[in-house]
Amino acid sequence: MALVALITLLILVQYLVFIMLCGAERGRSGLAAPAMTGDPGFERAYRVQMNTLEQLLVTLPALWLSALYFNPEIAASLGLAFMVGRILYRNSYVRDPAKRGPGMIIGFLANIGLLATALWGLVPHLW
Length: 127
Prior knowledge:
By secondary structure, this protein is mostly helical. The chain contains four helices and no strands. The chain has a single domain (2-30, 39-126), classed as Four Helix Bundle (Hemerythrin (Met), subunit A).
């Protein structure tokens, strides 16, 4: 379970980096808070940050449920795949949002894997 805890921390650090990159983009653009539109670079960085936050609502609970009820190593591997997908997603999205697909698909499939393994492992405990 220590590996799952490490992956959890790395995912949270990754999200904090995305927050900092978004803030740096706001500063670079000169877009004053609370404005959220007006600079495409900031808007892309903000969407990466918010989309990642939205995904974390699924990823983190599913990661721990998968580890607890299925297999910690598989859960950690899927969590790592999610992180890699998020890196690819961010790098693609800030350059050209139309090319964000591969990173999004990797993260999405990792989440599906986490949910499926959590469910697979949990169901036998219900009866």
